[in-house]
Amino acid sequence: MSRRIIIHAGFHKTGTTTLQDTLSLNAGFFLxxxxxxxxxxxxxxxxxxxxxxxxxxxxKRTRDEVRAQAxxxxxxxxxxxxxxxxISSESLAGHFPGSSGVSKYAPAPLAIETIxxxxxxxxxxxxxxxxxxxxxxxGWLASCHWHRLKHSRSKIxxxxxxxxFASAADHASIIDDIRARIGVHAVHSVALExxxxxxDPILEILNLSHLRADLxxxxxxxxxxxxxxxxxxxxxxxxxxxxxxxxxxxxAILRITT
Length: 258
Prior knowledge:
- This protein has helices at residues 16-25, 27-30, 42-56, 60-75, 107-123, 140-152, 158-164, 171-182, 199-205, 227-238, 243-256, and strands at residues 5-8, 35-38, 85-88, 129-135, 187-191.
- It has 258 residues and is α/β, with parallel strands linked by helices.
- This is Sulfotransferase family protein.
């Protein structure tokens, strides 16, 4: 019998960093129960890069590379280990909307279908292959915009960002496509508004909810600092401030409003 494997492949800005911080902080505690691979791990970095390349430049070559890297990764997994495998990396859904010319998650269903096919090739069965997508009903585009302001010196206003990338917020249609490709039974999805903490859906999927009380829970990560900080950072990004002064001014904005 094949091992059970759960891939948390996004979406961005739905508590993914908080989830991964919690998993990392409690990695030793989880070790007897689950085999973990997180976003910044060396072993999944090549697969993550391949999916990002495919997201930004869809074609046979880039999709074949996703398949190749997934097969390499899966070949390292011991099929006799009874623990489930958990992979958490939003890069496996592709690029962040607005990054590298990507406007929405259209490549995500193709990417996860290709990864599933690689798992079948290596393990001999699709049994046990599952995915989990965390979503968000409200405030998602605003959170994405804040992320872009912080990490890419973006100059786009919140209003323009929301208008430009409105279709990216339709997580439901992407998940419907994924279910059509790999099966309804293989896809879990929970909205951020419906969970007490991002770790909870994962614990439920893994049948490990009884461990919740013993976990070390870190603070939420990457929260927006509010409208005032957003406007200050947008104005700074639009200015001609040189890089060194820009970094100092940006740090001051983030510290002042923390």
